[in-house]
């Protein structure tokens, strides 16, 4: 089907890193903050039930390895592993509360998301970062609290982002039809998985991040370009 003959997009599912926020914010600000704070969290909150749950999960995935050593190995590898992502979300909460962390989204993101939500599109997040981390990012942007534009937040509890089943899980949870949903990500393997589950896709290619365009998905440099390409309302246009 050509774009003109396809049904309208009713829902947009968005990746975060490289799609709505620069890769540099995640790798140069969030990740170093977490690396520094995690030893303290494990030491001072060892009895916290949420911390205990994640430490038990680390032990299940890496039996016999000290939890902090395993977390460091995962951070070194930028592994998208649920217990690491959950614990990172816990330490970032303090950074946002202190005002040390503030999320500077790409400048095209806030106007587009506000415009799409106001026009009745259902917006949801799908990131390897935990739901807690996602709500923190969008709750503490340089442009204020944007979290209310989203009707859903999905993380690795749905499965990995390169696995088509994860998108089926999200569709089931959100009660969306695959063909109504547009998935935006900078990573072709994620888009491939979403397309396999029947979602529509668009690769966000941010020059600032040096994203390499693939050949199998439509490409856009900004969310305004996405709007133009998929017939969504455009911010700033009556
Ligand atoms: C939710 S903010 C932190 C993002 C993060 O931890 C990460 O690993 C990036 O994941 P994404 O799926 O958004 O590329
Ligand atoms: Mg990404």
UniProtKB/TrEMBL annotation:
CDD domains, A to Z: HAD_EP (cd01629)
Annotated pathway: Amino-acid biosynthesis; L-methionine biosynthesis via salvage pathway; L-methionine from S-methyl-5-thio-alpha-D-ribose 1-phosphate: step 4/6; Amino-acid biosynthesis; L-methionine biosynthesis via salvage pathway; L-methionine from S-methyl-5-thio-alpha-D-ribose 1-phosphate: step 3/6
GO molecular function: 2,3-diketo-5-methylthiopentyl-1-phosphate enolase activity; 2-hydroxy-3-keto-5-methylthiopentenyl-1-phosphate phosphatase activity; acireductone synthase activity; magnesium ion binding
SUPFAM superfamilies, sorted: HAD-like
Region forming the signal peptide: none
Reactions mediated catalytically: 5-methylsulfanyl-2,3-dioxopentyl phosphate + H2O = 1,2-dihydroxy-5-(methylsulfanyl)pent-1-en-3-one + phosphate
UniProt cofactor note: Binds 1 Mg(2+) ion per subunit.
UniProt similarity note: Belongs to the HAD-like hydrolase superfamily. MasA/MtnC family.
Subunit structure and binding partners: Monomer.
PANTHER family attached to this UniProt entry: ENOLASE-PHOSPHATASE E1
Protein name per Swiss-Prot or TrEMBL: Enolase-phosphatase E1
Organism name: Komagataeibacter intermedius AF2
């Amino acid at each position: 089907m050509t774009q003109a003959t396809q049904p309208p997009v009713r829902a947009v599912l968005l990746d975060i890193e490289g799609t709505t926020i620069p890769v540099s914010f995640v790798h140069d600000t969030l990740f170093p903050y977490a690396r520094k704070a995690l030893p303290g969290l494990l030491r001072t909150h060892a009895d916290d039930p949420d911390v205990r749950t994640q430490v038990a999960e680390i032990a299940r995935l890496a039996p016999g390895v000290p939890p902090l050593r395993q977390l460091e190995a995962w951070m070194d590898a930028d592994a998208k592993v649920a217990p690491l992502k959950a614990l990172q979300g816990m330490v970032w909460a303090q950074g946002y509360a202190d005002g040390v962390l503030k999320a500077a989204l790409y400048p095209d993101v806030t106007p587009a998301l506000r415009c799409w939500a106001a026009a009745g599109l259902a917006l949801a997040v799908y990131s390897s970062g935990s739901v807690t981390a996602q709500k923190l990012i969008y709750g503490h942007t340089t442009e204020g609290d944007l979290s209310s534009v989203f009707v859903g937040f999905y993380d690795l509890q749905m499965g990995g982002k390169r696995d088509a089943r994860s998108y089926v899980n999200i569709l089931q949870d959100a009660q969306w039809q695959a063909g109504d949903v547009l998935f935006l990500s900078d990573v072709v393997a994620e888009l491939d998985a979403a397309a396999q589950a029947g979602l529509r896709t668009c690769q966000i290619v941010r020059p600032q991040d040096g994203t390499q365009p693939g050949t199998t998905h439509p490409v856009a440099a900004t969310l305004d370009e996405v709007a133009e390409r998929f017939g969504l309302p455009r911010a700033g246009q009556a």
